[in-house]
Amino acid sequence: MEAVFGCLERNQEEMKEEQKKELALKLIDRLKKEYPDAGCTLDYDNAWKLLVSVRLAAQCTDARVNVVVEKLYEKFPDVDALAAADAEEIEEIVRPCGLGKSKARDIHACMKILKEQYAGNVPDSFDALLKLPGVGRKSANLIMGDVFGKPAIVTDTHCIRLVNRMGLVNNIKDPKKVEMALWKLIPPEEGSDFCHRLVYHGRDICTARTKPYCEKCCVSDLCAKAGV
Question: Which of 37, 124, 202, 220 is the most exposed place for a label (fewest CB within 10 A)?
Answer without folding.
Answer: 37
